[in-house]
Design a protein that fits this description.
Layout (H helix, E strand, L loop, with lengths): L8 E5 L3 H13 L2 E6 L12 E4 L5 H9 L3 E4 L6 H8 L8 H7 L2 H10 L7 E4 L2 H11 L2 E5 L9 E4 L5 H7 L5 E5 L3 E11 L5 E3 L3 E6 L2 E7 L5 H18 L3 E10 L4 E7 L9 H4 L4 H9 L13 E7 L11 H5 L4 E5 L10 E8 L3 H13 L2
Parallel strand pairs: 1-2, 1-4, 2-3
Antiparallel strand pairs: 5-8, 6-7, 6-8, 9-10, 9-11, 9-13, 11-12, 12-15, 13-14, 15-17, 16-17
Helix pairs in contact: 1-10, 2-3, 6-7
């Protein structure tokens, strides 16, 4: 298989912060970049040579992007399958529509995981308020999530009340949902795996993640986890990547229960918020690795050189009367600031993150949270 070498052009479907950071890594490697995003002021616009403003379901725009590129990748799962297929008719799209068809729908994703004998928590598929009421009666306290769309806590409701099923159903748009039984979770972790088209695979150590209001608040790499847990998490993530024949990146989100059981939560076939710390912690960042993988270059080392942690910065920071005190945060040794270039701040919107290095994962988390507190 012929690699796509530096000097050629990579197309990115999606121009958010993940596309921006992938483009910055690709530029360092010597690639040209084009992107497509519905937002004319998207985060990636000023780090790519051409940015098409078009909806993710615009097949003509996706084909136009592909026609001027050697390979197309993505930074968000919301690209329509029709757009992916339009691009695939012209150039390699990595990951492709076959993988996205599984991942885009939560019910289809869970069914695939069960069919392949991967561990998932108890859940139900529902297509009506009546089915939702029956599922809640069986499962008790649960998270009800729309099958399509939604992330960072959107398009989902926590409830255990069958009598409120009609209200919950309407609140989620009266569309098919999965009902996931609430679990006694000891820890949340994720594993990043890269796979190039010629078959080489590289697995990163698990990251330990902490969520607040169902949005990632901080993450640390390597996660301070039991060695056996880390080994099994890596094996599960690698096996899923092999079964799906991923071309690019795959992040497997996992729940760790009190008895050391690991359950797969969700899959993300792209760079991931929980691996932003790889820019400081690892020999190869997730963004450079994504470029290597989709271009079929030899994959980089996933070795952790030093522990690092990140803390997300949400739009609320910019909505007060005083601007964030970045100078105070950066006065802490080992702390760096990463802003995404977004023009509009909204509550819950990821505007950037802080990162910190330290001698241990625990110290890295303490340092980055201390820096965030100074803002």
């Amino acid at each position: 298989m012929k690699p796509i070498l530096p000097g050629e052009t990579i197309g990115i479907l999606g121009g958010g912060q993940l596309g921006r950071m992938m483009a910055m890594a690709a530029r360092s490697l010597g690639y040209h970049l084009h992107a497509l995003d519905p937002d004319p002021s998207c985060a990636a616009r000023f780090v790519v040579e051409q940015c098409l403003t078009a909806p993710f379901d615009d097949e003509i725009a996706a084909a136009y992007l592909a026609r001027n590129c050697s390979v197309v990748t993505l930074e968000i799962e919301k690209i329509s399958l029709a757009s992916l297929r339009a691009a695939e008719r012209l150039v390699p799209v990595r990951p492709g529509s076959a993988l996205l068809e599984i991942v885009q729908d939560r019910a289809r994703q869970k069914n695939w995981l069960i069919q392949q004998a991967f561990p998932v928590g108890d859940y139900a598929e529902v297509t009506s308020a009546e089915e939702l009421a029956a599922a809640l009666a069986r499962l008790g306290s649960s998270y009800v999530k729309s099958c399509a769309g939604g992330y960072d806590g959107r398009s989902q409701i926590r409830t255990g009340d069958p009598t409120a099923a009609e209200t919950s159903w309407r609140a989620l748009g009266s569309t098919p949902c999965v009902v996931e039984k609430e679990l006694a979770i000891a820890a949340e972790l994720s594993v990043l795996v890269a796979r190039r088209p010629s078959g080489e695979i590289a697995v990163y150590p698990p990251a330990l993640n902490h969520h607040e209001e169902r949005i990632l608040a901080w993450s640390v790499l390597p996660g301070p986890l039991d060695e056996e847990v880390s080994r099994r998490a890596g094996e599960i993530a690698r096996a899923i990547t092999e079964q799906l024949r991923v071309e690019g990146l795959l992040v497997v989100e996992l729940f760790l229960l009190g008895d050391k059981t690991l359950l797969v939560n969700e899959l993300a076939p792209r760079p991931h918020n929980s691996y932003h710390s790889s820019e400081l912690a690892c020999a190869t960042s997730q963004f450079e690795q994504a470029v290597r993988a989709v271009c079929d270059l030899p994959l980089g080392s996933t070795e952790v050189v030093r522990p690092a942690a990140i803390a997300n910065l949400l739009g609320e920071l910019w909505l007060s009367d005083l601007p964030p005190r970045f100078d105070e945060a950066l006065a802490i040794p080992g702390v760096r600031l990463h802003l995404y270039g977004k023009r509009v701040a909204r509550p819950g919107r990821k505007m950037g993150h802080l990162s910190a290095i330290a001698a241990t994962p625990k110290e890295a988390v303490e340092r980055v949270l201390a820096a965030k507190a100074r803002l």
